[in-house]
């Protein structure tokens, strides 16, 4: 097995939306905003090279939306999905599986492109199977009013129409009541486990795998940035924030107990972190770049 971090592009989001009810005087210490109250956000994906499979976890925003759409998100930097894949030595056609933690546009927008005539849409990875789960798919294709702006039909329905969409079973993996260790169940033959979380959106899937004797968890939107470690620091985007709290608490306790390495999808400045128990709760322990940890 070999892993490659894939930087699909940086953008900005409103700091208040990213930290919900937490006062700016607190969250700005770790996530400093610009003059428009926007903070730096990454779309950091993960490519897993294993045997005859090349699996991409999440795909970022993509580039097919209008200039007006991207104007809300202030893209910055030189990263892109295609250039990052090329840097890792691959082309989109090499990818065999695309695993989508959930179907919000900033996680799956790169899964679908315009077709050659720009009259419609087609899967961006023509040789890949795309993985979601039935509960989340139904949630995304019949969206509530709160999330409707995040579930864009053009990012989702072409996957079903193409016949490339697959569902994994679940959920029946959870935090063990006996010792609060996270029990990740290997599913779908993709070579990694999945932990389901419902606070941010219905049945978000967080992959975990053991790589070079380290347990790595792809954090998705359960922990967007290192600045979100304190339990009350919950995104305003979460549909069930009072469910995020216990999910996050149990997970972070397990991460501190068992030394999980947390791969941060949205933290533009911290790729991987570990956490530890303190008298204030679970807090940041160490920060690593992918290269210094594994190369």
Notable characteristics:
alpha+beta, 22% helix
Q: List the strand order in the largest sheet.
A: 11-12-13-14-15-16-17
Strand content: 25-35%
Please give the largest β-sheet. 7 strands, mixed
Structural category: alpha+beta
Secondary-structure element pattern, one letter each: EHHEEHHEHEEEHHEEEEEEEHEEEH
The share of residues in helices is: 10-25%
Q: How does this structure look, described?
A:
By secondary structure, the chain is α+β, with helices and mostly antiparallel strands. 22% of the residues lie in helices and 30% in strands. The protein is built from 9 helices and 17 strands. It has helices at 15-19, 24-27, 67-71, 81-87, 105-108, 134-141, 153-162, 241-258, 290-294; strands spanning 2-14, 38-50, 53-57, 97-99, 112-114, 121-123, 129-132, 165-167, 174-175, 182-183, 185-186, 193-197, 204-211, 214-218, 261-263, 272-278, 281-288. The strands form 4 sheets. A 7-stranded mixed beta sheet has the order 11-12-13-14-15-16-17. The chain is globular and about 55 Å long. The model is unreliable at 172-181 (pLDDT under 50).
Describe the structure in brief.
This protein is of the alpha+beta class and 295 residues long. It has nine helices and 17 strands. The chain has helices at 15-19, 24-27, 67-71, 81-87, 105-108, 134-141, 153-162, 241-258, 290-294, and strands at 2-14, 38-50, 53-57, 97-99, 112-114, 121-123, 129-132, 165-167, 174-175, 182-183, 185-186, 193-197, 204-211, 214-218, 261-263, 272-278, 281-288.
């Amino acid at each position: 097995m070999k892993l490659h971090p894939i930087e699909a592009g940086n953008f900005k989001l409103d700091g208040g939306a990213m930290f919900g009810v937490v006062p700016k005087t607190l969250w700005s210490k770790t996530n400093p905003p610009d003059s428009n109250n926007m903070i730096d956000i990454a779309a950091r994906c993960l490519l897993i090279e294993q045997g005859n499979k090349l699996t991409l976890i999440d795909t970022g925003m993509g580039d097919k939306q209008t200039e007006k759409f991207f104007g809300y998100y202030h893209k910055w930097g030189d990263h892109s999905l295609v250039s990052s894949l090329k840097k890792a030595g691959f082309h989109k056609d090499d990818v065999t599986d695309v695993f989508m933690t959930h179907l919000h546009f900033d996680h799956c927008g790169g899964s679908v492109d315009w077709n050659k005539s720009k009259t419609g849409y087609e899967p961006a990875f023509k040789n890949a199977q795309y993985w979601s789960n039935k509960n989340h798919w139904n949630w995304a294709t019949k969206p509530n009013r709160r999330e409707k702006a995040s579930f864009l039909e053009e990012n989702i329905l072409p996957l079903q129409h193409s016949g490339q969409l697959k569902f994994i079973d679940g959920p029946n993996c959870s935090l063990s009541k006996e010792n609060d260790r996270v029990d990740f169940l290997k599913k779908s033959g993709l070579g990694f486990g999945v932990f389901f979380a419902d606070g941010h959106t219905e049945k978000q899937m967080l992959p975990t795998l053991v790589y070079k004797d380290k347990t790595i968890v792809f954090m998705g939107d359960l922990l967007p940035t290192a600045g979100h470690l304190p339990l009350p620091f919950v995104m305003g985007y979460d549909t069930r924030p009072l469910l995020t709290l216990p999910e996050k608490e149990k997970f972070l306790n397990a991460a501190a107990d068992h030394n999980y390495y947390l791969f941060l999808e949205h933290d533009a400045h911290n790729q991987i972190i570990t956490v530890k128990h303190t008298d204030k709760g679970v807090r940041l322990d160490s920060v690593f770049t992918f290269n210094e940890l594994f190369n």
